[in-house]
Design goal:
It is built from 22 helices and 16 strands. The chain has 625 residues and is of the alpha/beta class. The strands form 4 sheets. The protein has a 5-stranded parallel beta sheet with strand order 2-3-4-1-5.
């Protein structure tokens, strides 16, 4: 409001994408470079612009093996005078040297005056600097906010075409469902800014997804007498938008988000798309009427518009601040390379301090004698495997710190790995050399070392005092092995196939005595909740308190039972992750490197599971601080 009042409204609204002005700055030997942004595809705008100029366009998406074909296209374009578009240059790093040579060899006397070379690429360190320096660079960032996003959708093809908008047979269902679809498109894109609360993976939903969905919507309304809501939800959720979604928890979220905008209720006048009541189905009857209704919406929106808790704004601001500081630190790392002697003294003290805190490696022979491999006690195997992993990690830390201290004194060569280790220690971040052997963690260096020492102390206590009655689930290197060990003990004791078992989960009251191990299963603690809290007074999930982003979940009793015997209570299937970024890769064991399991947390009967899915509620084994 301050900027709009002092400078004018145009300074807070994104300007239209001006291809004409950019084209005027180019020549037949000057490449035009689109710097891509997530959610934006410039090809449609470029094709329409080429049509207005009467130019022929040939395009190719670069990738392995496409180099010779791209060279032929450029050569023929230079001769015949038409436009060539090389898409996704960042995907073909090895060919960038050839591209640089092609641009460098362009001769204005030999190249047709109408020829233009258009390149699209995400920011990449491998993109040729020569082309960047000589080319005309442009970007078209996606609009920020629901209002700006929906305005762009209504001004873009095909919705802006009066014949397309007005000629559908089923009015007003067509207009209202179109508004709901545009709101859904903006909704899906804008959830990205909330990080893992919005999507585990920031998918690049773009204008092409909306265009095909709009055309399908019009086709389905023309073909069927009744609106086929289920078929539309399937097309949008499984193919158009869902085709980009690879994470199963994100697919669950997408299904929950699709349920309301693509429904019979959504085509009723006054239907509210958000819990705050701001975003409603307008009563407009024309394209201009819908644009006026959208322009009347607020410039910014609360997280409640996306089904999130108000605390999500704090999470978003923290995420943006962290990204800014990371960028500043990366710049400082280059600028400060090869610091003075005072810095070396500090670095030596840091390395010495960390090395002095590490306890001796676990004695695997003693552990094997005290906790031998037994058929009915799988936890002994779990313990032995965990000790091996932690010994490997502490060995890497000790040897790397010792080598670094020698390199500081000039006794050994300062390798690139040791230099990166020293930079990480000075900046207070986790060294990449350690993380190759480490458990997943997003903590800064000080917290990471404290967490490592706490994990080592937990297992030392196991060795000294016997099997714990109350397990710290966050302390395990490979949490899934611990859970499998618990199930395996029950399966072998009761002669039940392990694949017939599941966990009957109980959230324990605060006064429950965990000093005695349960007869079946295990007691675990050390789990945090993000996006919600556990209300101990009513023993169900509850809304987060203001400004409290994470809460500790009470101890759980994980009791192995036959899946058929587990009582079906009102619950939310809450995903449990090792770290807060909520995404990992599939390891060689068949398990995710981050996702652990689903927790069945009790909820109120009248509060559907979709409410907590939209909230982005998840459980974490550790926090980032």
């Amino acid at each position: 409001q301050f900027v709009a009042g002092e400078l004018g409204q145009r300074y807070i609204e994104p300007p239209p994408f001006d291809l004409e002005g950019t084209f005027q700055d180019s020549s037949s030997t000057t490449p035009l470079i689109f710097i891509l942004s997530p959610g934006v595809d410039p090809m449609l705008s470029l094709l329409k612009f080429a049509e207005s100029k009467g130019r022929k366009v040939d395009s190719i998406s670069l990738g392995q093996g496409q180099g010779p074909h791209a060279e032929q296209l450029v050569a023929s374009g230079q001769k015949e005078g038409y436009w060539i578009v090389l898409q996704n240059c960042h995907l073909y790093v090895s060919w960038m040297i050839t591209l640089e040579r092609l641009v460098e060899e362009m001769d204005p006397k030999k190249v047709h005056k109408n020829f233009r070379l258009w390149l699209t690429s995400y920011p990449s360190p491998h993109f040729p600097v020569l082309i960047l320096q000589n080319g005309v660079k442009m970007t078209n960032e996606p609009p920020k906010g629901l209002r700006a996003n929906m305005i762009q959708s209504y001004l873009a093809d095909p919705i802006s075409d009066p014949e397309f908008f007005d000629r559908c047979k089923k009015q007003p269902q067509w207009r209202r469902m179109l508004f709901g679809l545009c709101f859904l498109h903006a909704w899906l894109q804008e959830r990205r800014k909330y990080g893992p609360l919005g999507w585990n993976i920031p998918y690049e939903f773009n204008e092409s997804d909306l265009r095909i969905s709009v055309r399908q919507l019009r086709l389905f309304l023309t073909m069927f007498d009744d609106v086929p809501f289920e078929a539309l939800r399937y097309c949008f959720g499984e193919a158009n938008y869902g085709g980009r979604v690879t994470d199963d928890k994100d697919r669950r979220c997408l299904s929950a988000l699709l349920a309301e905008p693509i429904s019979a209720a959504a085509i009723e006048p006054g239907f509210t798309f958000s819990s705050d009541g701001v975003y409603c189905q307008p009563g407009a009857a024309t394209h201009e009427g819908y644009l006026e209704s959208i322009r009347a919406l607020p410039l910014t929106q609360l997280p409640t518009a996306f089904g999130l808790h108000e605390n999500a704004d704090i999470t978003k601001d923290l995420k943006e601040t962290r990204e800014l500081f990371d960028a500043v630190l990366s710049t400082q790392a280059r600028a400060g390379a090869g610091g003075g002697g005072g810095g070396e003294d500090v670095l030596d003290k840091i390395a010495e301090g960390i090395a002095s805190k590490l306890p001796p490696a676990f004695d695997l022979d003693v552990a094997g004698a005290n906790y031998p491999v037994q058929y009915l006690e799988s936890m002994n195997t779990v313990l032995h495997q965990e000790l091996i992993r932690f010994n490997r990690l502490t060995s890497v830390i000790r040897s790397s710190l010792a080598s670094l201290r020698k390199a500081i004194r000039g006794l050994v060569v300062m390798s690139s790995d040791l230099e990166a280790l020293g930079t990480a220690l000075v900046q207070g971040v986790r060294p990449a050399l350690w993380m190759k052997r480490s458990f997943p963690s997003l903590k800064p260096l000080g917290s990471y070392v404290s967490d490592l020492l706490a994990r080592l102390a937990f297992f030392q206590g196991w060795l000294d005092n016997g099997v714990p009655t109350h397990f710290w689930i966050s302390g395990f290197f490979f949490t899934q092995a611990f859970l499998t060990g618990s199930s395996q003990n029950y399966a072998r004791a009761n002669a039940i196939p392990i694949d017939h078992l599941g966990f009957d989960m109980h959230v324990l009251p605060a006064n429950h005595d965990c000093s005695v191990a349960p007869q079946e299963g295990v007691y675990v603690h050390g789990i945090f909740l993000e996006g919600a809290r556990f209300d101990e007074s009513s023993a169900v999930l509850g809304e987060s308190e203001p400004k409290v982003l994470f809460t500790k979940l009470p101890s759980l009793w994980l009791r192995p039972q036959r899946e058929a015997d587990i009582a079906d209570r009102a619950h939310y299937l809450c995903p449990l992750y090792k770290t807060s970024d909520r995404r990992g890769t599939l390891s060689t064991t068949g398990h995710s490197t981050n996702f652990v399991m689903f927790l069945k947390l009790p909820r109120l009967e009248e509060q559907p599971q979709e409410h907590w899915v939209k909230r982005g509620v998840a459980a974490l084994c550790e926090l980032d601080d």
